[in-house]
Structure formats: C-alpha cells, structure tokens
Amino acid sequence: MGVSKKQYDIIIIGGGIVGLSMALLLAESDKRIALLDRKGRVESFNPEQYDVRVSAVTPASVKLFEQLSVWADMVSLRVSPFTHMHVWDGQGQIQFNAASMGMNELGYFVENNVMLQVLWQRVLATANIELLNDIDLDYLQRHEHNSNIELHGGDTVLSAALIIGADGAQSWLREAAHMGITERNYQHHALVCTVKTEKAHDKTARQRFMPEGPLAFLPLGSAHESSIVWSSAPTHIDTLIQLSNDDFALALTEAFQSKLGAVIEVGPRATFPLVMRHAKQYVQPGLALVGDAAHTVHPLAGQGLNLGLADAALLAEWVLQDYAHKNERVNYSTLRRYERARKAENATMLAAMDGFKHLFGNDIPLLKWLRHRGLNLTNRLDFVKSLILQKAMGIAVL
Ligand SMILES: Cc1cc2nc3c(=O)[nH]c(=O)nc-3n(C[C@H](O)[C@H](O)[C@H](O)COP(=O)(O)OP(=O)(O)OC[C@H]3O[C@@H](n4cnc5c(N)ncnc54)[C@H](O)[C@@H]3O)c2cc1C
Question: Using CA atoms, how far apart are residues 69 and 194, in angstroms rounded to an integer?
Fold first, then answer.
C-alpha cells in the first residue's frame, strides 16, 4: 500500500479553544490550513446543565471572539457577565466594582463547551480549514522549508511550511521538536463543580484565600448557581472528592464562611492536578507553540486560556503580515519576535501567580502582616486597583 501525502500551508495540532481560534484567525489569509485533533469531536453545549469547566473570559478575549464574529453566537448559547469581585483572606480584603471603573462588567464566565461548540461550528463552515479528527501522530521530520508529520501506521504523511502546536499541556509538538520545558508542581489539585446556593450571587465573583489554597465561587447565569474552583493539597482534594454530596455541600458552606448562605445542591465533581509549565522555546524555524502547549498557570486568577488566546492573536497578526508581504513562508525572525513578546508577558503572569500562591499559602507573621496591609491599602487605592484589574483583564501593561 502506498503512502498518502497531503500538503498544506499551515498545520495546527490541537482543536481546543486556542487551536480553533488560531485556525480561524489564520483563515483570513488564503492559505490551506489543516487542524488536527486526536479526539473525535468537541464536547457540545447542554442547555439543561452547566459545563463543569467554566473559564473567566477577559474583555481582551471577548474582543478577539468579536473579531472572529463568534461572540454573538456564544452569547446566544449562554455566557454569564460579572460586575463585582470580592477577594479576602483572614486578614484583609479587596473589592472591585465595574461601575466605579466606568465599565458595564468586569468580564464573563463562559462554559468551555459553549466556546468549543461555537468555534468548532465556525471552523467546519470555513472553506480553507480542513478538520482532521481521531488523528494519531507518530513522528516529526524536519526539512529546510517544510516539516512532515507521519501519522500512526505510516500510511499518511502531512506536510506544511508552518506547524503550530496548540496541543495542550502535554504538547506532542513540544516534545517532538525538543523545545524543552521548565516545570514545577504547585502541590495543589483543583476541584471544580457547579453548585446551588441559598443566597443569590449578585453577579459577584468571590474568592477566599486560605492557607491551604484558594476557593472561588464564580457566578453563573442563574442567580443561585455558581461554578466553584477549590485548590488545595492533593490529599485534601482526594478527601473532598470522596465525600457524599451532602457532606461536600457542608464542607463548602463552612470553607466559604456561608458567604452565599448554605450550599444546597452540588453537581458532579472533577479534579485537575496543577502544574506550572513554561516551554523553553516557543518557536523553531517553521514551528510555533501557543496556549497550554507553551505555558500552564495556576487557575487562581483565571488567566490560562486568556494568555493562550493572546498568544494566538499576536502570532496570527504577525504571520498574516508576512503573508501580506507576499512571503510564501513565515520568516523565522517573525516567529522569534512572537516568542520574545509573548514569553516575557507570560513569564510575568506565571511569576505573579507564583507570588500570590506563596503569599497566601504562608503563615509566616511578616507575610501575614504584608498581606493584610497590602489587601486593605489596595482596597482604598482606586488607581492601583484599576491598574491591577486592567492587567488581569489583558487590556494594560503594568
Ligand atoms: C480548574 C481550572 C480552571 C481554569 N479556569 C480558567 C479560567 O477561569 N480562565 C482562563 O483563562 N483559564 C482557565 N484555566 C486554564 C484553561 O482551561 C486552559 O489554559 C485552556 O483550556 C488551554 O486551552 P488550549 O486550547 O491551549 O489547550 P487544551 O484545552 O488542552 O486543548 C488541547 C487540544 O489538543 C488536543 N491534543 C492534545 N494532544 C494531541 C495530539 N498528540 N494530537 C492531536 N491532538 C492533540 C486535545 O485533544 C485538545 O483538543 C483553568 C484551568 C483549570 C485546570
């Protein structure tokens, strides 16, 4: 049996939220794009039940979805705006309010399956993107102007001048190209779940920092439902996952200091190990990484996906500029420019999340004092708060 060879201009590996967005951004060129995923199809939206995976989506990411003309479709399925944020620990607290910052909302919580379904449908309807599912990648072969990817079984070879890895935390491309990684276990697992509470959430995102880790209640569209993210030591999360629904609801009510009254209903629980990862190289000639393939960060500030979308937006902008100059291939200098810009920005966020986790997960008296002074002072300084918020929303550089 002969080998089937398929030639594209761009191959994107990974059809998660970042990979799908990347493909749509690049489809603005006339290039032939293949989008590969090892899964059969994306999880679909279920109007009867909230997805257990929900992400805070910043105004900068909303802007990107608007640019792709997919935001209105997401809104028509289900998105949950939030107008207030309240963060506290045993010592101090900080509050944010959209109106006082001259904004209608601080951001949105969006179920991952809403984003995936809308983006996936748009990709299916885009003529120059070919979606290849159930793909099992075998090996990468590099040539001067082209790379080949051989699929498992050896009877199909896909080639392109540019290959983009949007293939998540365990990126196949990162490994295959030996791009290297710095990795550190946060010693936290995250437990996620949809819950119903006695009191309405009033569109307020709340997070309590405990020495063991943060617990967030993220408001959903219906006034009494929230998506929770509880990060703590793996043994603690193991215990929580084994509790009956009633006992888990009690443990949540207590840990959250009854801020929303009693937790009266809990949905299915899922857990994720939390690991900080940062690729040593984002690019090589003809190759680039975006999203979780390049970096993973603690979810305490809901930034992972937003950083990945910012990677995709910048890479697409500069790649499209190269194509617009009638370049057949993307210059390595363009890829290096992308790497320099995004690596510095992502490193800042990774370090900030590390600092936060360390600051709040520590009972050393000096740190406790700093935490108290820091949170309460910051609460009064509207200008500083506004800067922090803008940074967290991806619309300013501190
Ligand atoms: C508990 C928790 C809460 C979070 N909350 C937030 C939040 O509020 N806001 C936020 O911005 N971020 C949040 N994040 C982070 C966010 O979920 C991730 O950063 C984001 O989903 C990464 O998207 P991605 O497309 O880069 O990767 P993924 O979603 O991992 O997608 C990778 C895709 O590649 C495919 N793939 C993998 N390997 C291969 C292969 N070998 N061949 C072919 N296909 C392959 C996979 O099937 C998948 O479809 C959270 C994370 C966790 C764990």
Answer: 29
60 CA to middle of ligand 1, Å? Answer: 18
Each domain of the chain, given as residue ranges in start order, spans 4-67+113-182+278-357, 82-109+184-274
* End-to-end alpha carbon distance in the chain: 59
- Which residues sit with their C-beta closer than 6 Å to ligand 1? 13-19, 36-39, 55-56, 135, 137, 166-168, 172, 190, 192, 229, 272, 291-292, 299, 302-306, 308
User: 187 CA distance to ligand 1 centroid (A)?
Assistant: 19
Assign 398 a pLDDT band (cuts: 50, 70, 90).
very low
Angle at 40 between CA 36 and CA 45, to 5 degrees: 110
Helix (H/G/I), strand (E/B), else coil: 138: strand
Looking at the predicted structure, is the pLDDT value of residue 366 above 50?
Answer: no
- How many whole angstroms from 283 Cα to the centroid of ligand 1? 19
Helix, strand, coil content of the chain in percent (nearest 5): 40, 30, 30
**What pLDDT shows up at residue 95?**
84
- Match domain 82-109+184-274 to its CATH number in 3.40.630.190, 3.30.9.10, 3.40.718.10, 1.40.20.10: 3.30.9.10
CATH code given to domain 4-67+113-182+278-357: 3.50.50.60
Q: Global pTM?
A: 0.93
Minimum-distance ligand 1 atom for the alpha carbon of 305? 11
73 vs 10: CA distance, rounded Å: 27
Mutation test residue for ligand 1: of 52, 55, 110, 185, the one with most atoms within 8 Å of CB:
55
